[in-house]
Amino acid sequence: MANQFLIKNIMQEMKDLSANEVAWLQGTYPVYSGVKLLGYYKEGDTPEPIMYYLSSTDPGPEDGGSVIATGGIKLIHNFVGNVNVLYFGAKGVETGGQPPHPDDYPYLQNALNYCAGKGKCISLPGRKFYTSKILSVPYNSLGGDIVSEQGNNSSVKSCIELMASSTDLYTIRNYSQGTTFKDVAIRGRSVNIASSVAVLFKRVDEYPNSGDPWKDDLENNIDAVIEGCDFGNAETHLEFWGRQVTVKHNTFSGGHNGVVFKQFNTLGKYGGSARGYRIWNNFFHSFDSGNANRENFALINNKTTDGYGFDIVGNFSDSFNTFFMGNLVNSLVTGNLDYTLLGYFIKAGNIINSNITSINVDHAQRYSDTGTNPPYNSKGAVHADRIDKTIISNNNFTTSSGASILSEGVTNSKIQGNNFNRWGVATVAPVACIVLDSSANTGSKSYGNEIDVNTFYNSLKVGGYLLESGTFDTNNFWGNGNRIRLESQATLTALFNTPNFKLSQSVSFRRNLIAGENIGDANQDTFSIPGLYNITNDTIAASINGLPIGAAVAGTLKVEVANLYATRYYMPFRSSGNENIYIQKISNNIAGEWLTVITSKNEAQVDAVGVVKQSGAIADVTSPNATDLPTALTLANELKKQFNLKLASDRSSGQQA
Fold first, then answer.
1. Range 115-120, long-range pairs (CB < 8 A, 24+ positions)
2. Are 129 and 90 in contact (CB under 8 A)?
3. pLDDT (tens digit, 9 = 90+) per residue, 185-226?
4. Higher pLDDT, 485 or 173
C-alpha cells in the first residue's frame, strides 16, 4: 500500500487519528505515506487538498497549518510559494457576511510566523479577516509579506481589520526588513482613536541590548514595498521607523496622517540617516483633522530630523490636511495634485537641494464662499524656515489666504515658471505672494535667487504685493520676464514690500509685464516700486487690451526709477477723470525732480514740470501783407489777436505758467 494516503475530510479528523492510524503512518514500511487533507472546517473549504507527512525530527510546536500534533506524532506540510491563510484555519468574512465576525488573529499570526525567514508571503483570498490583537510580522531578514491571492483582478480586495472591541492601537506591526504588502486592504480600529495606526513598521527599541548585533544594529533597514493596498479607519495609516521604503499605487481613506516617517534612535549597522522614500501615484481621500489641526497633520509626514531622499511623484489628494510636512533634503516633489487643500501644500523646516517642480497643483476651491469650509487654501503653498539650493518651478499654486511661498531665508534658489493665482484672499491686511525673509526672522539673509518667468494672476480684494523681504538686505536678486495680471476687482499696492531695508544694487527687474485695471491702492491712491536700481528694458504697465493705463482709482501713480546708465520708461496714462502721473528720475542715487504727465483737459498746475499736453491749434493769419497804413494796422491787430489765442492755448495745455 506504499504511496497511498490516509484521507481526512477536515483538520479536526486529522488531529483525532486513532492509535491504529498513527501506527499505519510509522515504521520502516508504513501502510500510508501520509495524510491527505480535503478541507479545514469542511471538505473543499481550502483551495486544494494538501498532503501531510510524518516528521522524523521535532519540527517545533503545532501551528495549525504547517505542523499538526496528533496521537504523539507530528505531521508536517512544507508549503511551496505563497501560503494561503485558509490552510492555517483563518475563515474570513465573505461579501455580505453579518456579525458577529470570527476572530482570525491566531490563524493569521501562525501563518505570518511560518513565512518569516522562508522568503514566503501569506496570501489572502478575497475576504475580510478580523483580528482582535496586533498582527506582528516577526523579526527576520526575509518573508512575512502579505499579498492578495487574486491581486488586482479580484472584485473584492482582501482585507485585514482590527476589531472594534480590541484595545490595541495597531492592526499590523512589522519587525522584518524586506517586507511587501500588496493588493490588501488594512483597517484600523477607529479614525478618532489618538495614535492609532493601521500598519506600523517599527524596529526601534524592540530588541534593546539583546546581544545580537543583527537585531540591535539594523533597526533602520526596512526595505519595505507597499503596493496597491487600501488603508483606512486609523489616525495614521502607515508609520515607518526606518529607510528605503516604496509606497505606490495605494489608496488612503479618512484619517489624520497618511504616511509618517519617524526618527529612529540608532544609525544602524550601515550608518547614515533615514533616507530613500519613494511615494508614487497614491490616492489620499478625505483626510481632515478640523480647522485647528490641518497644519499639524499631513498626508505625508516626515518627523525625522535628518531624513532625506524623498521621491514624491504623481500623488492625488482631495483632502483638507497639509500635503507634506517636515524637512525636504535632496528630494523631488513632482506631478502631484491636491484639489481641496485647506492646510499647506508643503510645510517644512528646511528645504535644501530639492526640486518642487513639474505641474504640482495646489488647488483649493471646492465650496462656496459661505459655509464652514472656506473655498481657499487656508495656509499657503510652500512655507519653510529655510530654502536653499532649491528649484520651485512649473507649478500651479492657487487660492490661498496667506503667502504662496514664505521662508525666513531663501538662498541660491530659483522660483521659475509658476502660476500664482489668488493669494491673500481671506486676509484684512495686504499679503505678499512670495516672502523671502519673513518679519519674524532675526538672523538669515536671502541672496542669490532668481524669480523669473512666473505668472501672478491676482484677485486681491484689499491690496497686496508680489514680493516681500523683512529685515535684511536681499542681494543678487533677479526678477525677469514675469507676467503680473490683475483681475478687475483686484488692487496691487506695490510690487515690493520692504519695510526695513532697500533692495541692493545687484537687483534686476526686467522684461516684466504688469497688466490690469487696478494698479494702485484704493486707500492711499498710490502705487510704488521703491528702491530699485535696475528697472530697465521693457518693464511695462499695461491694460488688459495692451494699451497702457494707470489705475481705475483716482490718485497719483509714482514710480521711482534709478539707473547709473540709461533707462527707458514705459509708463501708463490715466483714464479720463483721474489725476496726473508723475515720473521721478534718480541719477546716481540722487533724487531729481518729478516730471508730470498731463492726461486730462484740466489746466496744468503752475509748478508742473516735464512732458505736457499739446496746445490747441491756432488759425493762420489771413490778412494780406501791408501796403499802406490802414492795411498795416489791420495786419497788426490780427497778429495780436492770434498771438493772444496762442498764449491762452499754451497756458491751458500747461506749456507755460
1. 115/83, 115/143, 115/144, 115/145, 116/140, 116/142, 116/143, 116/144, 116/176, 117/141, 117/142, 117/143, 118/142, 118/143, 119/143, 120/79, 120/81, 120/82, 120/83, 120/145
2. yes
3. 999 988 888 889 999 886 544 444 555 544 444 444 567 899
4. 173
Grid coordinates representing 90?
483563518
159/139 Cα distance (integer angstroms): 23
* Cβ density class 501-538: b for 16+ within 10 Å, e for less: eebeeebbbbbbbbbbbbbbbbeeeebbbeebbbbbee
Place of cell 491563510: 85
> CA distances (Å), 506 to each of 116, 407, 529, 533, in order?
63, 21, 16, 8
Beta bridge pairs of residue 405 = 382, 434
Are the beta carbons of 361 and 336 closer than 8 angstroms? yes
Over its C-alpha atoms, the chain yields an Rg (Å, rounded) of 38
Is residue 345 within 8 A of residue 377, CB to CB? The reply is yes
Q: Is-contact 413 436, C-beta < 8 A? A: no
Q: Of 373, 372, 426, 370, nearest to 403 (Cα)?
A: 426
Angstrom distance (rounded) from CA 183 to CA 478 = 49
Cell of 371: 459655509
Q: How many CA atoms lie within 13 A of 504 on its CB side?
A: 14
In whole angstroms, give the CA distance from residue 435 to residue 253.
34
Spell out the alpha helix ranges (H) of 57-139: 105-115
* 609: number of Cβ within 10 Å: 13
As given in the structure block, the three cell numbers for residue 497 are 514690500
Q: What are phi and psi of 79, to 5 degrees?
A: -75, 140
At 492, is the pLDDT very low, low, confident or very high (cuts 50, 70, 90)?
low
The Cα 403–Cα 638 span in angstroms is: 68
Residue 55's pLDDT band (cuts 50, 70, 90): very high
Cα 432–Cα 434–Cα 436 angle in degrees, nearest 5 = 110
Q: Which helix or strand (DSSP H or E) is residue 13 part of?
A: helix 11-15
Task: Report the Cα 34 to chain-centroid distance in Å.
Answer: 59
Measured CA to CA, the distance from residue 577 to residue 563 in angstroms comes to: 32
635 phi and psi angles, rounded to 5 deg: -65, -40
pLDDT tens-digit series, residues 552-580: 233 333 444 433 333 333 333 333 444 44
| Gap between the Cα atoms of 415 and 449, Å rounded | 8
Distances (CA, A) of 481 to 130, 295, 509, 549: 60, 34, 8, 20
3-state secondary structure 330-393: CCEEECCEECECCCEEEEEEEEECCEEECCCEECECCCCCCCCCCCCECCEEEEEEEEECCEEE
**Residue 23 is inside which H or E element, if any?**
helix 19-24
Residue pLDDT, tens place only, 284-333: 998 887 766 777 899 999 988 877 899 999 999 988 889 999 999 999 99
